[in-house]
Amino acid sequence: MATTAAPATAAATTEKRKPVFTKVDRLKPGTYGHTLTVKVVSSKTLTMHKGRSASQSLRRPRIAECLVGDETGTILFTARNEQVDIMKPDTTLILRNAKIDMFKGSMRLAVDKWGRVEVTEPAKFVVKEDNNLSLVEYELVNVDE
User: Fold this and answer.
1) pTM, to two decimals
2) Nearest one of 106, 107, 89, 84 to 34, comparing CA atoms
3) Domain locations in the chain?
4) Furthest C-alpha separation in the chain
């Protein structure tokens, strides 16, 4: 029985999709796959105090709560581990494959292991700080049909 191999040119012609950049004010609860350009407004490192042994405390996850935004609004970003180091105020970042997590009824932006946080050239926009999406409280409502 003869088998045929796929042509080698098929893999060579596959091109990466151009990212579609979105704005902060377009973010909705439960969504993912966002690519955004944001500026860091502020960053606060959180300390984790869970009853862990001495050996586990060496690899304790580092978490920072950062306010990031663009010209349309701001949102809290949860930075984890090595992301914490680059979350300095006025740094411009590209967040790739970001997702919206819900925490106590409010939206938080996060980038997990499937995404990337990249420092880029300083952006020209001024962050609109009076539209913080993380201050909007959402409530899960069950709809009976």
Assistant:
1) 0.78
2) 107
3) 24-46+62-119
4) 69
